[in-house]
Amino acid sequence: MAQSRQRKAANISRQKALAKEREGSVGDPVQSEPTPFIQELRKTQATLQDTDLNYFVTPDGLNEALEYSKNLTSPIRNPDRDTADPQLEKEAAEKHLQEHRNAQEAIRRIVSVANGNTKDHMRLHIQKCIETFGRHKTDSELPPKPSGVSHDSATVHLEKTPRVGPDTGSPEVQVAILTAKIMNLSRHLQTTKKDRHNKRNLRLLVHKRQKLLRYLRRKERGGPRWQNLMEKLGLSEAAWKGEISM
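The structure corresponding to this sequence follows.
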């Protein structure tokens, strides 16, 4: 009996060790590997650049608007040059230039994402996800998915309508956006251990991403679009395979 118990205990211990090794090889269902795209999303407020603008403002659009407002508010020269005072005109031009510089600095601070909150940073991350994984871009960069087995009775699909505008709703874009939200919540929960509400939100986001990943893998047959998504997001099999318990 004693030998039987020892063998059973050794077997259970070995099974636990193998299960732990298996979990380590599969990966983490929540965290992503530090790929270049993930590093871009992990930029904090201190590392945001001046070119990152809020409210969907572009650097070129901001410069054009500032130049237009400068021309609108510039002092008008006296058409009668005989009665004009060059000194007053010079002082007015210098005053206008200084006021424009002050307004320019104020506007740049207002629209800078570095001065925004977490919601503003997340909006910027969502834009990056759309620009990186949107099919309006990847359709021309990635080869098509592997073709399935064709039958005589297979459904004949009509030709797709050309895409208009950016892609914001495809599964890969939604997975990337969910990954950005998961990273944000995970970073928040590292400092607030008792936030049960957001722990539940994190669990829901992880399971929602798992569902989308399974759908995309089945739909794309594990093709280039699926591989590109998994590589850029640094996700392992644990993100979609098996049961996720948190």
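The CA atoms of residues 25 and 45 lie 34 Å apart.
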